[in-house]
Amino acid sequence: MDTMRDRFIATTSRLLDEEPRTALVLAEISAAGFEQAQRRHPDRVINVGIREQLLIGAGGGIALSGMRPIMHTFASFLVERPFEQVKLDFGHQNTGGVLVSAGASYDWPAGGFTHMSPGDVALLDTLDGWTVHVPGHPDEAEALLRHAVAGDDRVYVRLSQQSNSEARPVTGDRFLTLREGRGPAVVAVGPMLDNVLAATEGLDVSVLYATTVRPFDREAVRAAAGGRGDVVIVEPYLEGTSTTAANDALSDVPHRVLGLGVARRELRRYGTIDEHLAAHGLDPVSLRARISAFAEQGARGAHRRS
What we know:
Structural class: alpha/beta
Number of helices: 12
Strand content: 15-25%
Order of helices and strands: HEHEHEHHEHEHEEEHEEHEHEHH
Strand order of the largest sheet: 2-1-3-4-6-5-10
Shape: globular
Protein name: Transketolase B subunit
Low-confidence stretches: none
InterPro entries: PDH/Transketolase (IPR051157), THDP-binding (IPR029061), Transketo_C/PFOR_II (IPR009014), Transketolase-like_Pyr-bd (IPR005475), Transketolase_C (IPR033248)
GO molecular function, one term: magnesium ion binding
Distance between the termini: 51 Å
CATH superfamily of the largest domain: Thiamin diphosphate (ThDP)-binding fold, Pyr/PP domains
Pfam family, one: Transketolase_C
Number of domains: 2
CATH architecture of the largest domain: 3-Layer(aba) Sandwich
Largest sheet: 7 strands, mixed
């Protein structure tokens, strides 16, 4: 199976052929994959070199001309390094564009902390008007990228090496309900789904699948949480990133929210993706223990209140 990044290159190359208003801005990363597209569309495929602030600035200028720019590099260089440009050249100028990242939180551990970006979604949360897609499979990445390019708003598409075993029918807005139970509602974000499904096998919980996390699907969480109002959010980035959104969705009912994700502590050994997952407690065994403890605590509290 191809990776999300492979699918991004193939899909964007086709979009450049199909959509005359589409432009692509690169900062060396993935440039080799777009060599043919650049030959076909030299005026709409621009490689600015290792100049990430210019990457965003050029994209912002292209957006002001009425075109639809796609800007791409590693997440740490796309959101964190040029954050001022993201804030001003798109938010302040009220223009639209599509940021497409690679690298996720720790997809290339050998690259070290400079190439890791567990805080990217939390950082974008400080800005207004961004849609955030977190696909869990290459097919979903293609669908969400096409959805993003067809619009005029500000969109971040967060790609990862991690992938679920099968694609789900994503729409670019709502969470999908995959299991229904009487216990907590467990929201699995993007590539966390397979681990969450394995971790919750046999548990009396609901499982929601989220590939579009901003806007946050408040209605789906409210419906799944039910009367108990307990929610677990399993995210492939900084733990707690979406707990405020869940708390806001349930603000009028008693509730508890557990945010599971990448811890704030820096892991200073390279390791592998699977080793990073285990170290952050995001492997199936660790997730099952943490979700079960949360559910049991809630059940004991409900029993005491009755």
